[in-house]
Fold this protein.
Amino acid sequence: MHKFNYRWTLKDTHFTKDKGKVFSCFSAGGGSSLGYKLAGFDVIGCNEIDPKMMEAYITNNSPKYAYTEPIQTFKERDDLPEELYNLDILDGSPPCSTFSMAGNREKDWGKEKKFREGQAEQVLDTLFFDFIDLAKKLQPKVVIAENVTGILLGEARKYVSRIYEELDKAGYYCQLFLLDASKMGVPQKRRRVFFIALRKDLASPFLYSIDLFTEKPLIRMAFNEPEIPFKEIADNEDHTVIDHTVASQLYPFVKLGDNFATVHEKGHFFNECKVHPDKPVKTICATGGHGSWHPTIQRLLNDRELLLASSFPLDYNSCRNTVRYIVGMSVPPLMIAHVATNIYEQWLKHGNVS
């Protein structure tokens, strides 16, 4: 029923590393990298601006190359190892808070801001184009970039058009897919946009005509695995009740599956949600409110439940970060494992893509 098992550990998993080489940008704690590893890829390195996140990445992934710096300086390096110029996949999840429906969106576009305490100020909505600059320099076979669904809405769609244009100039055919983690063996309703681009000189065996003037390399990204409800991952033995917050006072009045704003007189606490036991957990956010609450025990989801809901290994070491921050900032590993497997099976394993 499920291609990959969301209950897994690093210590008990053998990574084959026989499907190709990957480098990850904006790598955070390594959710994407863990997914590539599950799919059989060799993730040789990463670039991440946050030292705390890099600490967690190195602890759990042991990369050969690790660069803790802004992508703006990383892309300008002239001392990168030869391996990075022979990648199968360049992966990246450019910070997306300026496109998120939970943020200020257009009001923040073009402004410098700190993405998190301790990081340098940068214009977040241009980082995607720094990533494309790196792709143009390294020329991997495939480029994969993940972002929030808000990038498809309103004025943000202009950024999507520019992303297509810049990838085209960099030498890639780009396609966009809207995917839901809950259809990919992840016990979480998490919808994300994936830009998947194949280098033009490798694309001829896969090209098909969209219309008289447009061709794209064919790839299928349809997933429909059975959803995994919260009751399958619930830790009902943890009775650590929270009773000292405003949200905890609202908890008894919130219906299963609803957010706390439904019972607050001013509609506050929108980012607090009481999980429905028969449905996947709603999207886990890194910040903004306390998050998801257990359906029958007055407490937030604990670390084990968060790891399971995000398909992270149960022995993941978050180091100086909270588990919620790590998983909220990450693509669920199983989500990437599915995407990477399809790319390998449909494109990379063929001898003429070399």
Observations:
- The longest helix spans residues 333-348.
